[in-house]
Specification:
- By secondary structure, this protein is of the alpha/beta class.
- Helices cover about 35% and strands about 15% of the residues.
- A seven-stranded mixed beta sheet has the order 3-9-8-7-6-4-5, with helices on both faces. Strands 10-11-14-13 form a four-stranded antiparallel beta sheet, covered by helices on one side.
- A hairpin with a 2-residue loop joins strand 10 and strand 11.
- Helix 11 packs across helix 12.
- Pfam families: Aminotran_3.
- Its cofactor is pyridoxal 5'-phosphate.
């Protein structure tokens, strides 16, 4: 049975809440940064890359050339936790040779970024409780320090960490009352006054963390933070703050977790966003552009015997990730290396940063706080109401973008985006602001 593209929404609506974007994606004709609507052939410029999960655009020739590899991986879904194969090993080797840092040698794969975070927390819980038991402190170590405006997922433990603008993501679901810390976010441009305020807010946050540790003796397993908060508002932090967090974790037997699900795999101009900073995490979670999700962990977990990477069944799942996702990511890694896309993200990020600065100068009453690291960029509008009007206008003008936090709009282009596409997106933003706000 073939369903007409014009009936896709109605067909889906019989069984799911079909409230997604209006276009019906043409899987064959979409190309590069352009998503084609199969209903009428119209093209949308994509600056959201499927919620930052798309790495190399639509129908990249090397992805198409790898169809046989992908088909072979999709014919059967093996339980990779226990049954291994050559494609799996080839993928892990490619991942190791490109994007796995030497200081994070332990790897765990699963389906879904939230479950990558979830299992990072389980690594920390196991580590902390075993440490406490070894030191005669009992079975303690079940709390996580986290931050306001964070998004870490919608499953189990992660519901207790996520607290972005939209309360519908977590309300009414049972959650743990874990320590939640104010964020000392930067605003741009960075002036002396901005730095003074940020330094004051950093001290407040550090004092809150110290109080949380004092009020929960031996019970904090880890501290988790996004290198740049994504959904919470594209909030950036100073390196000094990460240094202080690293020190607190070291001094208080806590693991330092960085959630790189949205910031990882090149979009900031490095493989991982935390690599722009001077400290290394103990664990990172990954997902989105990696296709398969999971975590990477460092040798600090080896401080306890029978840690989760040495004792069977402590962290596990039926499938241990998805082989087709692994093969697709393997091809993506080859493309990133072949086309030097990490460097492209850095260079195009510089182009985007200039364009956002020009945008703020042209619309000083509306566009403020232009910011970014590589292609991971955003700007603010005066209010949520005005931001939402612009987002709706962009969609009508065939530009796909996402809101961020209370009043921001975020850029999440593919790694191989061109300067022409970036400038086209800025032109559409300009015309939309003029039409909706002026």
């Amino acid at each position: 049975m073939t369903i007409d593209s014009k009936n896709v929404r109605a067909t889906l609506g019989k069984h799911i809440l079909a409230d997604g974007y209006e276009p019906v994606m043409d899987m064959e004709k979409s190309h590069g940064s352009w998503l084609v609507d199969e209903r009428d052939g119209s093209e949308y410029l994509d600056m959201f890359s499927m919620f930052a999960s798309g790495a190399v655009g639509y129908n990249h020739p090397d992805i198409l050339a790898g169809k046989d590899r992908l088909a072979a991986a999709a014919l059967y879904k093996p339980t990779l936790s226990d049954i291994y194969n050559v494609q799996y090993a080839e993928f892990v080797e490619a991942f190791s040779n490109t994007a796995i840092p030497e200081y994070l040698p332990h790897t765990f794969f699963i389906e879904g970024g939230a479950l990558g975070v979830e299992n990072a927390l389980k690594v920390a819980f196991d580590w902390k409780v075993r440490k406490n038991m070894e030191n005669g402190k009992g079975e303690k170590g079940g709390k996580i320090i986290h931050f306001k405006q964070a998004f870490h997922g919608r499953t189990g433990y992660t519901l207790s960490l996520t607290n972005t603008t939209d309360p519908r993501k977590t309300m009414y679901f049972p959650k743990f009352d874990w320590p939640r810390i104010d964020i000392p976010k930067l605003s741009f441009p960075i002036t002396d006054i901005v730095l003074e305020n940020v330094e004051k807010n950093e001290k407040i946050a550090i004092d809150q963390i110290k109080s949380a540790i004092s009020n929960n003796p031996d019970d904090i397993a880890a501290l988790i933070i996004e290198p740049i908060q994504g959904e919470g508002g594209d909030n950036h932090f100073r390196d000094n703050f990460f240094v202080a967090l690293r020190q607190l974790c070291d001094e208080n037997e806590m693991l330092f977790i960085m959630d790189e699900v949205q910031t990882g795999i090149g979009i900031t101009g490095k493989w991982w966003a935390h690599q722009h900073n001077s400290v290394k995490p103990d664990i990172i979670s990954f997902g989105k552009k990696t296709q398969v999700c999971g975590l990477l962990a460092g040798k600090r977990v080896e401080e306890v015997d029978k840690n989760v990477f040495s004792e069977s069944s402590r962290i596990n799942s039926t499938f241990g990730g998805n082989l087709a996702d692994m093969v697709r990511f393997h091809i993506i890694l080859e493309i990133i290396e072949k086309e030097n896309l990490i460097e492209n993200a850095k260079n195009m990020g510089a182009v985007l940063k200039k364009e956002l600065q020009f945008l703020s100068e042209e619309f000083p009453a509306y566009v403020t706080n232009p910011r970014g690291l590589g292609l991971f960029a955003a700007f603010d509008l005066p209010s949520q109401t005005e931001r939402d009007k612009v987002i709706d206008g962009l969609l009508k003008n065939k530009l796909l973008m996402l809101p961020s936090g209370d009043d921001a709009i975020r850029f999440r282009p593919h790694l191989n985006v061109t300067s022409e596409d970036l400038k086209t997106s800025i032109d559409i933003i300009k015309s939309t602001i003029k039409a909706t706000l002026n």
